[in-house]
DNA sequence: AGATTCTTGATTTACGTACATCAAAAATTC
DNA sequence: GAATTTTTGATGTACGTAAATCAAGAATCT
């Protein structure tokens, strides 16, 4: 049987109340006594029964999630995952409020962060935009004692507690190596389509891709980046233009969202088999394109993992506990047509 | 505030005891009354507080894990993860016993399964060998009311409850596509090194690899499979022979364990850069080889995920609950040198 | 030494559920 | 309609921790 607080009290020769004071950092315990209790805890290998503790505290965690609006499937999927987390609120003792803001609009995001502060939550999760006013708003939250986790896109200049997302530099590098090796010495320029250079994750992916391409396919020409703002219609227009302007186009790296447009433009051109295409995020559209051969490789971040990780970290921070960094690292998933999960995720 | 059993009793106009009888399927409730209570549960959206329930039950789950002995890093890593789960026993209310058996020995495995039955656990997790006597032993466990989960390697002919491992056919296909595309039309035969055709996972990987190679690099010659029994020393000997016998060797697919030997032989030959190598399982050795370029791509199954998933499934089965299949699907991870996790896992 | 502050003990209630017991009420059988 | 069985109610204890209260003891200061 695992030891309880009673066992500690007996072992240390103190009362239950004193054990409680030590365990919960309450004042009124002499250093000597505290040591005695801590030695008993150590000796018995006591671990607090979290379930019982939560039951006794009947604690709930009010959190705010700030997500961008927009038509792209990835962000909508993220919203779905947050909704799923909301549905688990009762059982997880969370109370989640969702705020929607226009995409790629730093001022609107900063305003939403202010609004979140007014709700006095225990923590905030936000898809960040890398802009000074956003940094200021995040730091204000932190100073108000509210935990902040950036989601999907990071804000390195701020005092945010944690980033729940993938290493986008590594993701870009991975895409670059795959592209370089899949091209295998083939000639022709490679195009890059981004969402916006305003968000950190897209900038990082671009840097990583360029570096890895330079290593795995030295001398290969990269066209200058075009920005599609994660909007399928805009992406379709841009890619159609690229295909028209560069008859010898060898590859396309789509590092943002809006893959529906990318796929439509490629398939309209009839050149989907000769253009090596690497894209991000597994959606029903990109999944179908991978199976049909229009897309050659897909990098993915699991939105569900990210949301659940963000909540775990926010909870831990709210309780003043450490998180195990390694456990909260979000993996970059690579999908070829052969290893797609069965359910369209 | 979320509703409790008291709220249901009030809503349904019955006593607490009756609600308890309904919730826990105890006898002595009329159909009409049962309906009334169930309607109240529905109306209030009651969800049982699992933490409180477990606390009240002070339930523990005795489980047995059966793992193969042997010198290869993957299985040792699996054992470490099981040990880690054992360390969490107190907090997870499990009591885990580990049985070690000689690798690739169906008779010994069947005997261990018999022994496990004698321990009368709630569930058994086993790295299976695809043999009739093992099927018989697993089925005997199931008939004794003990849940069985196969781990890493499956046993499709048996009545096991669940398989906690990757889709090895898909893993083999993925390796085949990567190999085919990385070779990019280069000539020369491709060698395949397996552990043993006795275990299901190796057979599946081989089938998948052959099929995908035929598609992505049609007409490429595959040498016949050699078996290294997941033993580094034996694998080293075999690979050295392969390299000597085939000066034009273009690629090696190592679908089992014992990568230390593979790497040693490749590097001793000095041909590690010209031979495209795809292997399985991320270990400190394979990680270093991926970074140095000796290995070109690595497929991985996260042993920690598999062990934790196996425990979740066993618990659910012991409680007679459903598992969400999608949630327990173990992903095939693909690592290139660019997306390696920071910690040597 | 006496007053004051700090430290500790003893005890109680609460969290939400599980489970057992005994008595009372209702339904069923003869 | 009495006897029997089935169903329901009332109540209490337990799980392990949190948190509060009040009294008693020890240490510190003057």
Overview features:
homodimer, 345 residues, alpha/beta, 5-stranded parallel beta sheet, DNA-binding
Q: Can you characterise this structure?
A:
The structure is a homodimer of 345-residue chains. With 345 residues, the first copy, chain A, is an alpha/beta fold. Chain A has 14 helices and 11 strands. Chain A has helices at 5-12, 16-23, 31-44, 50-57, 73-87, 89-92, 106-118, 132-143, 168-183, 200-216, 232-245, 259-269, 284-292, 303-318, and strands at 61-68, 94-101, 123-126, 147-151, 162-164, 190-194, 226-227, 251-254, 276-280, 297-300, 333-335. In chain A, strands 7-6-8-9-10-11 form a 6-stranded mixed sheet, with helices on both faces. A 5-stranded parallel sheet of chain A has the order 2-1-3-4-5, with helices on both faces. In chain A, helix 8 links the parallel strand 3 (123-126) and strand 4 (147-151). In chain A, helix 5 (73-87) crosses helix 14 (303-318), helix 9 runs parallel beside helix 10 (200-216) and helix 11 (232-245) packs parallel to helix 12. Chain A starts with a helix and ends in a 10-residue tail after the last strand. The mean pLDDT of chain A is 93. Chain A binds chain B through residues 2, 45, 47, 49-52, 54-55, 90-91, 167, 170-171, 173-174, 176-178, 181-182, 184-185, 208, 212, 326, 329, 331-334, 336-339, 341-343, and chain B through 2, 45, 47, 49-52, 54-55, 90-91, 167, 170-171, 173-174, 176-178, 181-182, 184-185, 208, 212, 326, 329, 331-334, 336-339, 341-343. The structure holds a DNA duplex (30 and 30 nucleotides).
């Amino acid at each position: 049987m695992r030891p309880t607080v009673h066992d500690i009290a007996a072992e240390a020769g103190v009362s239950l109340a004193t054990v409680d004071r030590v365990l919960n950092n309450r004042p009124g315990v002499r250093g000597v006594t505290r040591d005695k209790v801590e030695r008993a805890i150590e000796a018995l290998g006591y671990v607090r029964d979290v379930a019982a503790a939560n039951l006794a505290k009947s604690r709930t965690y009010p959190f705010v999630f700030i997500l961008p609006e927009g038509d792209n499937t990835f962000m909508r999927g993220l919203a779905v995952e947050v909704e799923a987390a909301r549905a688990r609120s009762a059982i997880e003792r969370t109370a989640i409020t969702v705020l929607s803001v226009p995409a790629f609009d730093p001022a609107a995001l900063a305003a939403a962060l202010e609004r979140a502060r007014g709700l006095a939550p225990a923590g905030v999760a936000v898809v960040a935009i890398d802009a000074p006013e956003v940094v200021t708003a995040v730091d204000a939250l932190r100073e108000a004692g509210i935990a902040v986790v950036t989601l999907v896109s990071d804000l390195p200049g701020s005092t945010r507690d944690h980033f729940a997302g993938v290493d986008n530099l590594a993701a870009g590098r991975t895409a670059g190596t795959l592209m370089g090796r899949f091209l295998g010495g083939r000639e022709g320029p490679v195009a890059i389509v981004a969402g916006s250079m305003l968000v950190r994750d897209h900038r990082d992916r671009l840097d990583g891709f360029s570096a890895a391409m330079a290593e795995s396919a030295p001398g290969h020409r990269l066209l200058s980046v075009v920005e599609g703002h994660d909007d399928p219609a805009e992406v379709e227009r841009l890619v159609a233009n690229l295909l028209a302007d560069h008859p010898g186009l060898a590859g396309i790296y789509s590092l943002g969202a809006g893959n529906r447009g990318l796929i439509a433009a490629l398939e309209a051109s009839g050149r989907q088999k000769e253009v090596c295409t690497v894209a991000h995020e597994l959606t029903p559209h990109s999944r179908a394109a991978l199976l049909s051969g229009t897309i050659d490789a897909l990098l993915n971040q699991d939105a569900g993992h990210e949301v659940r990780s963000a909540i775990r970290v926010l909870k831990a921070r709210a309780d003043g506990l450490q998180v195990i960094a390694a456990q909260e690292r979000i993996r970059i998933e690579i999908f070829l047509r052969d290893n797609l999960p069965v359910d369209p995720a």
